[in-house]
Amino acid sequence: MVSKIVVIFILFVIVVYIRFFNFWSMVSFKTGFLIAILLFFLSCLSLVFILKIAIVPCIVAIHYLLFRYVKSKYARK
Q: Can you give the pTM of this predicted structure?
């Protein structure tokens, strides 16, 4: 079973990735890290729920990248 430290590391990497590329400007690095710490201490949450929370920003970022790529490639000049 995946430990909670690995889940925190995954959330940490996602927050850094999102902030670096400015995909989700409303969430600061501090807020994302606090969310990761809260998820670490809330042991009543299941691991599946925590992983779903970690995957959602990745899906949003991928859709944003695909939308920008398609828009820039097929934009009429």
A: 0.33
